[in-house]
């Protein structure tokens, strides 16, 4: 299938399958059950769970939405109760919002290729934060932005904005959350909008009974995926639930290393999300576990995770799973 056709197909999928009025704007998303995103200061140690000290999150706003939008950051500073200290608080974090041509279509941005042009597009707003009690457990708001200031990419559902979070200085861990909203002073979802990300860095719960999730979508041209995860710290297991997979186990990493594994995708899993479940070890809590994960298709292209599972949370279908292999 040509790229154009795939794009058209994706667009149709979005229009048909996006749950109406769904709460898709918090990142991490409600269905992900992930407590916080994480980015460390640029002098941090990778072994603490961040491989390159940058996180990139995209927000998509439907073409039909005409009111201003805002991007809000919860606990944007690094210091205080939410964050992870290494020695004294000395971390400086920069948040930058980009729109316009190339913001998302530039491959370096989707790949988080920090050697390349990942800061592509028009800079719409930027702010750096050192430790500041005023922002502890409080929101900072970027915007207002006109939706048309985003990059128009129908294959990603509309006008796309990019938020780049960079650990400029220091070595502490910044934990934070995001929200795409119609209001500057409160979190009110933008109808039909959602977030997506190609490389995701986050903190797991400090509770062995919590299960976290991410939801990539399998278009019909995907025949295999390769997942890579970093610094999982041997914390339990990661498995895939899909129409044909009843908990297929994924290779997981230890401390300060990467692990990857390849997984076949057949017809039964096409046009469906995967539910990639991260299940913590039941004994001996792995505390403050920060993890990085990304997914590639058979061409080595990065695949987005969506803040809402497109088509809903997938379930294993027993009748498919027991079919004999061809
Ligand atoms: Ca420090
Ligand atoms: Ca923080
Ligand atoms: Ca870790």
Annotation keywords:
326 residues, mainly beta, 9-stranded antiparallel β-sheet, 7-stranded antiparallel β-sheet, 3 helices, 22 strands, 7% helix, 38% strand, globular, binds calcium ion
Provide an overview of this structure:
This protein is mainly beta. The chain has one domain (3-321). Helices cover 7% and strands 38% of the residues. It has 3 helices and 22 strands. Strands 1, 2, 4, 7, 10, 12, 15, 18 and 21 form a 9-stranded antiparallel sheet that branches. Strands 3, 5, 6, 8, 9, 11 and 22 form a 7-stranded antiparallel sheet that branches. Strands 13-20-16-17 form a 4-stranded antiparallel sheet, with no helix packed on it. The radius of gyration is 19 Å and the shape is globular. It starts with a helix and ends in a 5-residue tail after the last helix. The model has no long low-confidence stretch (mean pLDDT 93). Bound molecules: calcium ion (3 copies).
Query: What hetero molecules are bound to the protein chains?
Result: calcium ion
Helix-strand pattern: HEEEEEHEEEEEEEEEEEEEEEEEH
Determine the oligomeric state from the structure: single chain
Total domain count: 1
Radius of gyration, Cα only, in angstroms?
19 Å
Number of helical segments with 4 or more residues: 3
Major beta sheet, specifics?
9 strands, antiparallel
